[in-house]
Amino acid sequence: MSAVTAEQSRDLDRPPSRAKRRKWTSFILPVFTIAMIVYLASPIFIMILFSFNKLIGQRQIAKFTCCTLNWWTELSAIPSLNEAIKTSILVAVPAAIVATALGTLIGLVLGRYRFRGRAPVNFVIFLAIAVPEIVLASALLSMFVLAKSPLGYGSTLFSHIGFSIAFVAITVRARVQGLDRSLENAAQDLFATPFQAFRKVTLPLILPGIVAGLMLSFVLSLDDFVITQFVAGAVNTFPTWVFGASRIGLPPQVNAWGTVLFAAGLLAASLNLFVSFRASRKSE
User: Fold this and answer.
1) In the chain, which residue ranges form alpha helices assigned H by DSSP?
2) Is 115 in a helix, a strand, or coil?
3) Which residues pair with 53 in a beta bridge?
4) Cβ neighbour number for residue 20 with a 10 Å cutoff
5) Residue 178 or 207, more confident
6) Better-predicted residue by pLDDT, 17 or 38
7) pLDDT (tens digit, 9 = 90+) per residue, 212-222?
8) Residue 165 above 90 pLDDT?
9) Please, what are the domains in the chain?
10) HEC letters along 118-184
């Protein structure tokens, strides 16, 4: 091996140079992402801020004057608003549970099996999501009118279950298609029955998708306005009540209730992340 020259020796002794400066174009995507997050979240921050707005009178104004807790201590001061919140929850909870049960079964079938008619079922599910909500609302209203079914809580619950099933089915199907089927086969090779293999292997792995579908259907039902406006009759949910009250001015309790619902959504999202983390740890 040849001896190291003096120039090479100086290069070895020289401290490492600083990393090259990042080009300004590398900041475009981070800045754009942060700007979009701020843009999308700003209405929520404004709603939370105005739930502490000190104002004269009982209707929401555009000017913010800090600060008061009156609207939080008087959260239940408007009986009709409380009834609308109660109705929204009484619709959203059973709608989410039923839609999750039915959507999970559909997602499992579409994700695991190939059968005649699979393509039409996929098309119908896609159509249920892609069709404009106003079209679906008018179709449901026509169905109830032709069936001479009274409009109210029952028609609202039925409609919310119907449009939520497709979202759950797609969420669960995506989770099922990403599973490693060899894990379930290995469980059956170890003398587990098909039901035991499903309960102890498949179900824990698809549980994050089921929980995500449950949360999604609950939120979709809770904030739906167009379909509810068509099929609810004299029943008021939170979105329809807010729409009606906006004509004369919103009471500030609406912001407080909106903050409560947003906090509940954050809690549900955190629960879904926790379930997903537990499932990923078990699969490793």
Assistant:
1) 6-13, 28-50, 70-73, 79-112, 118-130, 133-146, 153-177, 181-189, 194-197, 203-223, 226-231, 238-245, 253-283
2) coil
3) 66
4) 6
5) 207
6) 38
7) 899 889 989 98
8) yes
9) 80-283 (1.10.3720.10)
10) HHHHHHHHHHHHHCCHHHHHHHHHHHHHHCCCCCCHHHHHHHHHHHHHHHHHHHHHHHHHCCCHHHH
